[in-house]
Structures are given as structure tokens and as C-alpha cells.
Amino acid sequence: MPAKPAAGGPALAMTRTQRLLTGLVPRAWAAAMEADSRRWMVRCHACGFARSIWELGGVRWKATGSSATWRRCPGCGARGRHTIERRDEAPPAGGV
To answer: Using one digit for the tens of pLDDT, what is the confidence trace for 40-83?
Structure first.
């Protein structure tokens, strides 16, 4: 799998879905798609642990609003509700 460098972090391999979608659009759109997907955070209600949609292997581009999903948290291990919401400020240097 080809690796694509993360913003301020180590190189991470893109998922098949990410490769397909970014391969179908011009490079400028692909960069905007990745940047926008990195702003959308999935946050655990139990412990507050958050990861971007992009880090989870997804794409959320030009989306609005917020939603919720049910999943296992990699931070605390609990299964529960996770909120998906947009973070407009730049991510911290050491990750989330």
C-alpha cells in the first residue's frame, strides 16, 4: 500500500476507499478532501478520546451538521455512542 504523510505525523497508509476517491479527482480536490476529513472528529462520550474520520479510514468531504455512531472506543475500550463533529481549528502538534 502506498503511504501518504499525515499532517504533522508519521506516514499512514490510505484505505482502499480513500485511494479510490482521491484517485478519481484532481490532486487539489484530493488534498482538500483529506484536509476536510481530518477536521471531522469522532469523539467517545465515555472518555472523550477523539480521532479524525481520515485516521479511521473514512472520508467526509464538504459535509455539514453532526451525527452520532455506535462503536468501540480505542481509548477506553468501552462500546458506546460517539459523536461526529467538525473541528475548525488546527490540530495540536502531537496529535489529538
So the answer is: 999 999 999 999 999 988 898 888 888 899 999 989 999 999 99
Q: Quick one: average pLDDT of 19-42?
A: 90
C-alpha cell at 59: 472520508
In a domain? residue 61 = yes
Q: Distance between CA 84 and CA 21 in Å, rounded?
A: 21
User: Among residues 68, 59, 69, 1, which one has the least CA distance to residue 30?
Assistant: 59
Q: Considering its fold, how many domains does the chain have in total?
A: 1
Q: What is the DSSP string of 19-81?
A: HHHHHHS-HHHHHHHHHHHHHEEEEETTT--EEETTTTT----S--S-EEEEEE-TTT--EEE
Please indicate, yes or no, if residue 7 is contained in any of the structural domains: no
pLDDT score at 83: 94
